[in-house]
Specification:
Distance between the termini: 28 Å
Largest sheet: 4 strands, mixed
Radius of gyration: 13 Å
Helix content: 25-40%
Oligomer: single chain
Shape: globular
CATH topology: Ribosomal Protein S5, domain 2
Structural class: alpha+beta
Order of helices and strands: HEEEHEH
Length: 115
């Protein structure tokens, strides 16, 4: 049984066709350290992506883990739909709380919080 606020396989977008659909048809909201593509849907699923030029596995994986945790915590309060969260290279040097504030700012500007 999958946890309600976890980040298991049922909560992830893994199909390339769905990712392309979100990127082409979805709305884009940008912040200082990340960019969120959103496409309204019935269920809620996420994909965490990073810019291609982030060197070093330690930094890349650390940023990915931070984005995954921020998304996991916020998932109960977000609208249903497909989300692609892009971490930018500049986000490597910042702390968790600053990244979380940027995430919340972008979600707020996009009006993606549940009513």
């Amino acid at each position: 049984m999958e946890k309600e606020c976890g980040f298991g396989k049922g909560k992830r977008i893994t199909d390339d066709r769905e990712i392309k659909k979100v990127l082409q048809e979805g709305q884009v909201y940008s912040g200082s350290f990340l960019k969120i593509h959103y496409l309204q849907g019935v269920d809620q699923r996420f994909s965490i992506r990073l810019q291609a030029h982030i060197k070093g596995g330690y930094n890349r994986n650390r940023l990915r883990r931070r984005l995954r945790e921020i998304t996991r915590q916020a998932s109960l309060e977000l609208k249903n739909g497909l989300y692609i969260i892009w971490g930018r290279k500049i986000a490597i040097g910042i702390g968790y709380h600053r990244l979380k504030r940027d995430f919340e700012k972008v979600i707020g500007e996009g009006n993606l919080w549940r009513d």
